[in-house]
Design a protein that fits this description.
The protein has 115 residues and is of the alpha/beta class. The chain is 41% helix and 18% strand. A four-stranded mixed sheet has the order 1-2-3-4, with helices on both faces. The longest helix has 14 residues. The radius of gyration is 15 Å and the shape is globular. The N and C termini lie far apart (31 Å).
Length: 115
């Protein structure tokens, strides 16, 4: 028998958090790993959360001009389009944006205290 951990933080029997820094988020979206993680979290927990961390010292944007197609829309292979599709495919999956690891710890603690 093997044990597969689901999520980075299990805050309660109903809440799990998967934490992704932007480079890992883009890599996981490109490889399909995040799809499988989201699938496992939504099957195992009532409230799965994707916590996206970005560098608080830099301006935050998920979309740059380089990701726009000639028609003005997003390229379907872009990380931004894949993130939208992931959230549409798993409607139970909630997401939060945080600017630093310390802020992420604080949000996890707050969620755990409120449940």
């Amino acid at each position: 028998m093997s044990y597969v951990q689901v999520g980075d933080y299990v805050l309660s029997p109903e809440i799990v958090v998967e934490r992704k820094a932007l480079p890992d988020l883009f890599s996981s979206l490109g490889s399909g790993r995040l799809y499988h993680q989201a699938e496992a979290m939504t099957k195992s927990y009532k409230t799965p959360i994707l916590l996206i961390e970005f560098d608080g010292d830099k301006a935050f944007a998920l979309t740059g001009l380089s990701e726009l197609s000639d028609s003005g829309g997003l390229d379907h292979r872009s990380p931004q389009a894949r993130l939208v599709l992931l959230l549409l495919h798993f409607p139970k999956l909630r997401y939060a944006l945080r600017s630093a690891f310390c802020a992420s710890c604080g949000i996890c603690l707050l969620i755990a205290l409120l449940t």
